[in-house]
Every structure is written in C-alpha cells, then in structure tokens.
Amino acid sequence: MAGLLLLCAAAVLLLAPGGTIPPPEDAARMARFVLHNCDWGALATLSAQEGLRGQPFANIFSLSDGPPGPSSGSGVPYLYLTDMEISVQDLEINSNASLTVSLAQTPYCKKHRYDPQNPLCAHIIFCGSIVKVNDSEADLAKKALFSRHPEMESWPKDHNWFFAKFNITNIWVLDYFGGLKIVTPEEYYSVKP
C-alpha cells in the first residue's frame, strides 16, 4: 500500500508540457513554475470608467515570462498592451494591479480531475504595478511574448501596441491545503521554475 501511495504521489507531480511540478514546500519555485507554464492571466485593476470608478475590474491578458521550455523563464510577466484597451485606461490613472495565474489553464488540473478552485490546482496571485518596458528590455519582452503568442505580430499597427511588465511587489501561492503562502519578490527571482 505504501508503494502505491508513493507511486500516486509521484504521478501527481508530473506536468507533461513543463516538466515536474515543484513540491508544496517550495512556494517560490511553484510561483515561477506556474507563471512560466501559463500563457494568460486575470489582471485586476481599479476601474476609471464612468459608473465603475474605483470598483475592481478584472480582464484576461496574454502574457509570457519567456519562450516555452524548462528554465527559460525570467519570472517577469510581460504583456503587449494598447491604450485603446479598457484596463489599460484604468492603469493610466492607477498603475496598481493584481495578476492571477492558475494551472487550471494547463492540462495538469484536468488530468488529475482537480477543480480550478482545489488548492492542488495551484494558482498564484501577484500584486504590483504595470510599467512600460524601456528600450533595453523591449527585445526581451518581444521575444517572450511573440514566442508564445505569434498572432501578436500581426495585430493592427495603428493600435500603438507597447510592451509592458508586471512589476511584482507581493506574491501569494495557493498550491496545497492549509492556506496561502507568502513569497517575497527576492525569493521568487532567486529560483528557477
């Protein structure tokens, strides 16, 4: 019976496209792993729109921390944005935001029959702000985003797209029972996914 339990535990740790999922006691690595294996996230802003001003407003955005593959992620969530987008208009008033990414968008949770709300279907909540990348970082952002989202290259040029990043100040990890784990940005950036 113990052998079967060990075999089941090992099977739970496998995630086909991105390698092996980190153990729950390694929250910083889990945060990097989940972000690197997700292609989009829910970005929440404080609305600046008439009738919603000051209310939370969540929207889906494509993102990337680097090209697909193990150990190729920077940990920085990059986005491709336009001022025409409603959430970006919110960010122009208040750049603070939160970003949630979840393994529910990968095959992992379905394979293990985990509901997206099950803590074993890990999700990460980042808090911080959205900032435009400078010229020296633009090539890195472009490579990260266009390698995962090639359609972006053909988006209308007259929309004045720009590269931005999520400047992380706080990180919460929910990947096991017992509540959220807090990871500092320093811990997060010091590990590989």
UniProtKB/TrEMBL annotation:
Cleavable signal peptide: 1-20
Keywords from the named record: Glycoprotein, Secreted, Signal
Gene3D superfamilies: Electron Transport, Fmn-binding Protein, Chain A
UniProt cross-references to SUPFAM superfamilies, sorted A to Z: FMN-binding split barrel
GO terms under cellular component: cytoplasm; endomembrane system; extracellular space
PANTHER family tied to this protein: CREG1 PROTEIN (PTHR13343), PROTEIN CREG1 (PTHR13343:SF21)
Protein name as annotated: CREG1 protein
